[in-house]
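debug: dumping io for the single-chain case to check the tokenizer round-trip. Nothing else runs in this session.
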Amino acid sequence: MRYLLLVILILNLGCSSNEKSKGTKKELTPEDKEFGWIENSAFEKVDEVAFNSNQDLFEQVSSDDSLSKESISRLPTPKIEEVASSNDPVSQGIGKCYGKNFTEADKIFEANYKRYKNNPAYWNQVGTCQFLKGEYRKALLFYNKARTLNANYAPPVNNIGVIHQRQGRDQKALAAFKKAVELNKFSLTPIFNLAQLYLKYGFVDKSQNIFKTLYNKNSDDIDVLNALGTGQLLKENYSVSINYFSKIPRGKLSNPKYGLNFAIALKAGGRVKDAKAVFDRIDTKSMGDLGGYYNKVGRYLNE
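debug: decoded output
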């Protein structure tokens, strides 16, 4: 019915032109008044932007994080602002989302809908914006839209895995990460996520093999160093564990997710004084869910 009304409107506009040529004035019909806001520009063809795998890489960002070109989630604010100010509208939109400027991001995505509506990278980033809002159901909808447009597109599969993991469905997350790796063996993000999950469930050797590969690509990535240090700690290779943790910049060790396990490794390796020094520098204001673990580590160091 809506299309019929649009056709009627076009015909009325045509008749209006003829009536004007006769020098008479035609009164507006109810249809004219209802659809008077429609302009010719609404029917103009818009050149769509074809999918390009390079759209998933933030080439303008340089960072010690080996995953930063695939995901900007761990970048500091200045780096995120750099992405948000790029010439690419999809990068602009997701940069605004990571900067928590969701209103502006929505405007950017909406303004570029016609150009990118058949582009899976666009829908993947729209989904990630919803994910950052905490709207997981909406995020899944957009991720699956991206998959509909390109069934072999790995990023939304990985991102679906992240949602499963956030919601405690680790088995489904594992399946998603594995599938994403199968789809793109060169993408580091799903490989990293898969290794993290292996480490969480005690598959240390599996995780270490993956993290060593990532370490060889970038030996300064602090999350990879942390994972390697933690894995070697679990294997009771304390000197190797300490070596990896020691490569993390001292300023980062105030973060409990890095400093706590380093303190344990130092104590287990016989360096009690150094362990307590690392522990004392941990920022207790950024503890998050690690408060209980922080207390346990403190007691262990004083045994």
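debug: round-trip ok. Confidence is low (pLDDT under 50) at residues 1-26, 33-38, 57-64, 74-80.
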